Amino acid sequence: MKVTNWGNYPVIEATVHTPSTINDVRTVVTSSPELIARGLGRCYGDSSLNTAIVSTLRLNHILAFDEQSGNITCESGVSFAEILDAFVPRGWFVPVTPGTKFITVGGAIASDVHGKNHHIAGSFSAHLQSMKVMLHDGSVVLCSRDTHPDLFWATCGGMGLTGIILEATFRMVRIETAYIRQRIVKAKNIDAAIDAFEANKHWTYSVAWIDCLSKGDSLGRSALILGEHATKQEVGYRYRDPLKIDKGISIPVPLFLPDFVLNTYTVKIFNGLVNAKYIQGDSFVEYGPFFYPLDVFSDWNRIYGKRGFTQYQFVLPKETSRVGLRKVLERISLSGEGSFLAVLKLFGKQEGLLSFPQEGFTLALDFAISPTTLALLGELDELVCEHGGRLYLTKDVRMTKDVFEKGYSQAAKFLTTKNKFDTQKKFQSLQSKRIGLS
After folding, report:
1. Is 28 buried (19+), middle (13-18) or exposed (0-12) by CB count in 10 A?
2. Residue 438: C-alpha distances to residues 324, 392, 418, 425 (Å)
3. What's the pLDDT tens digit per position in 271-328?
């Protein structure tokens, strides 16, 4: 069957296995020469693609929850959406979440996902207690920081290359309401945006929308969105039951849009509308629009057309972020290859061998796939490497081995651990072959 991930590029022919029990998984693993696990396919590129794929979507059971500690144990195919639907009304929230709730717990571990609170809470691995991983021979290993810590840290952010994640235990966060106390701070350019992040780093959640086509003194004009989980006292009389919210609507994008719809002019118009939408000040919003603004549009990836798109996300160390971000934005603005979506976040320190975050700033940009765009991204690679940064494996579909090795200094240590636990080199993806991790 034809399979692709969220970027709709590449599209490949693959055999997709959908086991529903651990024994089913073992049968597939031991009988396949090579394969990779895949959840909901929300990674943008080819990191969960291979000619043989193990879908974890039938491993979707919540196994246990401790009301005192907040520890939840579930199978790897359980989605964040399912967890939030079940536990927000009970006063619990996931500790770290990316910009979509339509990811699986296994995918969150494999990508070691980060969110708007990384500078305070770290990435998903910081809240992970333990997990069970099936190795190449069908054996199952329980690993944690204390038990098989080398496998634990190689699997967190390891893009599924150490084995099949079967289940995991992680710590949830207690909340009083399903609402976010939000503050909008406008910034006239990228320097003002960085200053605003630093001035507001005590806020738990922070993210900025960036206009990547603005120029001159307005280069990188931004709207910084800050947030805290609202308390019952703060929301007060506004809501009868502050832990319950309406399910909301889903707006479909039924067709792939023609390629000509997204161009420099339409992106400029869109950026102008977004800038006008963000009004400086405070408000209360439901958690969905705050964390997952695009989830209201089902299949929104179709707006880029059948050619597909890629999200180019990189991080720069704090000491080079100001200069490096300015150079990247200047290059994008000069090219006219505007990004429909550009998001800036602040990172804190990070553990892990292949975990993406490092202390500094990360910028994520969406680009439709085209020869001119791919050429531009090659130029941006040079700027990122020049300023000591790296690209996010979960969003990547075209990184070279050289760029990968420059950005990930512990890649050799990761390979040593992978080869220890995957002696048959069974767990591979198109990405791992491209960047030298197979």
Report:
1. buried
2. 31, 18, 9, 7
3. 666 666 778 889 999 999 999 999 988 898 888 888 999 999 999 999 999 999 999 9
Q: Which residues of 299-338 are buried (b: 16+ CB within 10 A; e: fewer)?
A: ebbbbbbeebbbbbbbbbbbebbbebbbbbbeebbebebb
DSSP 104: B
Q: Is 27 helix (H, G, I), strand (E, B) or coil?
A: helix
Residue the block writes with tokens 């969220």: 6
Q: How many CB atoms lie within 10 A of CB 269?
A: 10
Pair 303, 262: CB distance under 8 Å: yes
Give the residue ranges of DSSP H helices in 56-204: 80-87, 105-111, 118-121, 149-155, 190-199
What confidence tens digit (pLDDT) does each residue in 110-166 have?
Answer: 999 999 999 999 999 999 999 999 999 999 999 999 999 999 999 999 999 999 999
Q: Give the pair of three-digit tokens for residue 262.
A: 């997204």
Whole-angstrom Cα distance, residue 125 to residue 123?
6
CATH of domain 57-175: 3.30.465.10
Would you identify the CATH topology of the domain 179-401?
Alpha-Beta Plaits (3.30.70)
**Residues 328, 305: contact at Cβ < 8 Å?**
no
pTM of the model: 0.96
Domain boundaries, the chain: 57-175, 179-401
